[in-house]
Structure formats: C-alpha cells, structure tokens
Design goal:
Elements (H helix, E strand, L loop, with lengths): L3 E2 L8 E3 L1 H5 L11 E7 L10 E4 L2 E8 L1 E6 L2 E6 L3 E4 L5 E6 L4 E7 L1 H6 L4 H9 L4 E3 L3 H17 L9 H22 L8 H17 L6 H7 L4 H12 L3 H17 L6 H7 L5 H12 L3 H6 L4
Parallel strand pairs: 2-4
Antiparallel strand pairs: 1-2, 3-10, 4-9, 5-8, 5-10, 6-7, 6-9, 8-11
Helix pairs in contact: 4-5, 6-8, 10-11
Length: 303
C-alpha cells in the first residue's frame, strides 16, 4: 500500500489515498471503485506505532500469521481465519505483524457502495458500529467470502473477457454484504434502531466532535439534546454498545495521542488544550485508558 503524508490535526499522521492505491495494481481495472489484492509482510510499508488514516474502506481476511492494531483505543488481534472490516477515516496504529503474515484485502470507496444499489447508510452502519467489525471462528463464512473476493478480483481484470462483468461484480459484492449482515443478525450484533434513536445518536456525535475539548460531562450533551442523561445513555448503549462517557473519552484520548506525538506540545500544554484542570488529572486519565503515562507515551519510539 502506498501512503501520502500531509498536514492534518497532527503532522505525523500518514494518509492512505485510494488514488495512490489504484497505482499499485498490476493490471487495468474495469471498475475503479474497488480493489482486491493479496498482501504479505513484505508488501507492508506501514511502520509500527505510527498513526495512519485511509480515505476508503477495507476488509481484511487473514489466511496465515497474525496482525495486531489499535483503533479508537480498542486493540485487535487478528489471526488466520479471522475477518475484520475497517471504516474510512479512522486513525489506527499497527502494533505488530508476524513474519508469515498473508491476507486477502478488498478496498472500496463510498461511491462504490452507492453504485452497487445498496442503501449506503445502512451498509455503513453494519460495518462501523464497533468501530470495526471483527469475525472470528467462522470457517464457513470465511471460505465463502474468500471465494467471492476471488471472483471479484478476476471480474475486475480488464485483460479478461466477460460481457456481463458489471452485473456479476455487483452480484458477488452483494453476496459478501449479505453473508456478513446475515452473520451479524444471527449473532445479535445489530438491534432494531428507530429513526429517533438514530437521529439522537448522530446529533450526539456532532456535538461531541464540536465540544469534546471543553465539555467532558455527559450532562452537557443531554442538555444540548433536550433529553435526560439517563435517556441519552440508554440510546447510545443501544446504538453503539458503549456509554456516552466512553465515546467522549475515546475522542479525548485520540486527540491527546495526536497532540503528544507532536513534539511542539508538552504534557502541560496538552492538558490545557483539552481543558483538564491540571496535568496530574490529565495524566491519571491518560494512563487509565492507555496503560501508559503521557511521559512514557511521548518518549516512546514513534517508529
């Protein structure tokens, strides 16, 4: 995978772009909204413990070895036979990659989901609520999805003749979505969510993104939404399977990590930017969520 670095909330974030990814494919694609490829440790340019972000969606099916990464302060250990879907725009850190790692990937854009005929919002809700969907110990599902990915890879090769390639691409992509959605429904990962609950959840996220530095208290967000704290907590627990406080803390920790990795910001300055009363309170908060003090995290090897 290729990466492109540019200034963002932290100059140290490296960005994967779909356009650069297209340049890595060894043959012409019929449909440029998705890419299926194999990857091993030798193909990876990702450095350990560095923040990355992609402008596309990714599904990984590990065939051999293992990979570990962190996203939204949740650690994922993926071994052979496991599947994981990583949403667009989330910052992640790769923790480790085994020497024998081998996996099959599909990368696709938001436009590709829309063009496939699905309700794109519904599809993205399936895959982004955890924030990553992680499926383990499902060999039959794993085999089916690998088969569908291999069909998509062949159909998207412009060097191979297939008159109905577009219809068949939508068919196999649909099968992947249906297989995974069916599995999640069977394991009760998705609950019936009303339009009102969905609206409150969306509005809550917008408010958190806007006010998280100044407002760490759940009551503030409940007041802004004109609902009780108890009602907000019940909705967020249902829609996201996390409490509102956990969501606020996740956003704070992500921002704290990015600020600490910026050598121009010391720990006291980071605590002030995030409106903690003092450095000691911030340090205690940071260590509780990361198991490292800000000093340990900032002095750690960034590469």
């Amino acid at each position: 995978m290729s990466r492109k670095s540019r200034a963002a909330s932290s100059d140290l974030i490296s960005y994967f772009t779909f356009e650069e990814l297209l340049q890595q494919v060894g043959f012409d694609l019929r449909v440029k909204g998705f890419i299926v490829m194999n990857s091993s440790k030798n193909d990876h340019t990702i450095k350990l413990n560095m923040p990355y972000r992609a402008d596309y969606y990714c599904m990984i099916l590990v065939r051999k070895g293992s990979i570990g990464f962190t996203m939204k302060d949740q650690q994922y250990e993926i071994a052979a036979g496991d599947m994981i879907f990583c949403p667009k725009g989330e910052t992640f850190w790769m923790d480790h990659l085994s020497a024998d790692y081998n996996a099959k990937y599909i990368f696709f854009s938001f436009d590709f989901i829309s063009e496939s005929g699905f309700n794109s919002i519904d599809v993205l809700k399936i895959f982004t609520s955890d924030p990553a969907i992680f499926i383990k110990n499902e060999p039959d599902l794993f085999r089916k999805v690998v088969f569908h990915l291999e069909q998509l890879e062949n159909l998207n090769n412009a060097e191979k003749n297939n008159y109905y390639f577009k219809e068949m691409i939508w068919h196999y992509f649909s099968l992947i979505i249906y297989e995974i959605d069916n599995h999640l429904k069977k394991t009760e990962k998705i609950k019936s969510i009303s339009d009102r609950e969905d609206e409150i959840t969306t509005d809550f996220f917008v408010l958190v993104r806007k006010h998280f530095k100044e407002q760490h208290n759940v009551q503030f967000y409940a007041d802004q939404l004109y609902i009780s704290r108890k009602y907000l907590t019940s909705i967020i627990n249902k829609t996201l399977r996390k409490s509102p406080k956990e969501i606020i803390d996740q956003v704070l920790i992500l921002e704290a990590r990015l600020l600490l990795k910026n050598s121009n910001s010391n720990i006291t300055e980071v605590a002030l930017q995030l409106k903690f009363p003092d450095q000691a309170t911030f340090s205690k908060f940071f260590k509780r969520h990361t198991r490292k003090s800000p000093q340990e995290y900032k002095k750690g090897d960034l590469y």
